[in-house]
Every structure is written in structure tokens, then in C-alpha cells.
Amino acid sequence: MNKISYLIKSISRIYPNCNNIGYIPSRSIQLTKVQNLYTPSAIGIDGYLHTRRRIKEQFANFSDKFRSKMEDFVKDPKQMIFTEDLKNMVHMAEPTDIQLVLDMVKKFNTQKTEFRFGSFVFGPVVMRMFYFLEAPNEALQCFKDPDNKGFFDQLVSYQILLDLLYNQERYDDMYEIFEVVKERQINMTKYPKYPVILILAACYKQ
Fold first, then answer.
1. Is the pTM of this model over 0.85?
2. Which GO molecular function annotations are given, in alphabetical order (predicted)?
3. Which end of the chain has fewer CB within 10 Å, C or N?
């Protein structure tokens, strides 16, 4: 399917009363005035940064020791990654820590569910970390890893990933991810509004 057909089909799913691509409510999407479609607060980056500052302050005197401990836990099959471990690492992470986070996510997600405590949803938070660190390659790697199945099954995780790819002008990657969005139909929704808006923006840019 060419990009124009893709664009028309996507619009018709969100705005079924539109008969052509010339009619899109102006309050829904504006592509010519700003580079980013969504503000940091709209996708939770402000909240992520607030928690990041707090956790980095808490770990100011022993962050290196914590990182070393997590590296050992990842390598040791007898050790587990707990919710608080991953939560802290995701909010402390610097570019040099991304591989450690990838390893922790994989181990956490493949642990037996009875060993997980609490109901914290990590998908959006990890995507916000990738967004903040401007790491689209690693975000795609983590998202596509079969060992992470179910980890990012939240519409907001898709939105953050697509927005990151849009900001990096990775439009072909966006189309690939959107096919996954349609296939998984999270919340019984094949064409969720905000991911579709990002795809419209990608079509427009190309």
C-alpha cells in the first residue's frame, strides 16, 4: 500500500465522516508550526523527569554500587530483578546504562509472574526513558524482542515510541510499528486515535 492510500485509510478510521484528506479537524493535528506533535507533559515526560530527579538524589552516594549489583543480578540465573530494582534503574539510566536496562527488562519479563510484586506497569516508563535519552534504536530493539512480549502492550507505550520515531524522522519504522499496533488491538482498538495521528504526520512529512 502506498503512503497516500495508507493516509486515507487511517483518516477514515478516525474521522469516518471525512470524504477526502482535505478535511481534518484543525484542533486535532497541526504539522506545519512545530516539530513535535505532543508536548513532554502530554506523554508523561515531565512526570518521568520529576521522579528521575528524586531517585538520582536518593542514589547520589551509591549509584555506581547499585549499577554493579544489577549487572551481577542480570548475569546470575539464581537472582531476580525486582520491581523496585527496575524502577530505580530506569529512572537513573544514562546512555551508558541502556544495555543494562535492556537486560533487566528481558530478565524481569521472563521471570515467573508469581515472583513479581505489585502491579506497576513498566511499558510507558521504559519508553519515556528511551525518549528522554533519545535512543530510538534501543527502543525498537526492546519493543521487538520476543522475550519482552506483553511488556509494552499499552496504547501510551505505542504513542511514546511512535512520537520518538517521528521526532527522529524514522517514518518507515513508524509504519512497521503501526502494523503491530493494528495486529495486537490493545483495548479492542485496531486504529487507536493518537498512534493514527502520528502516522498521519509521518505520511504528511514524506
1. no
2. RNA binding
3. N
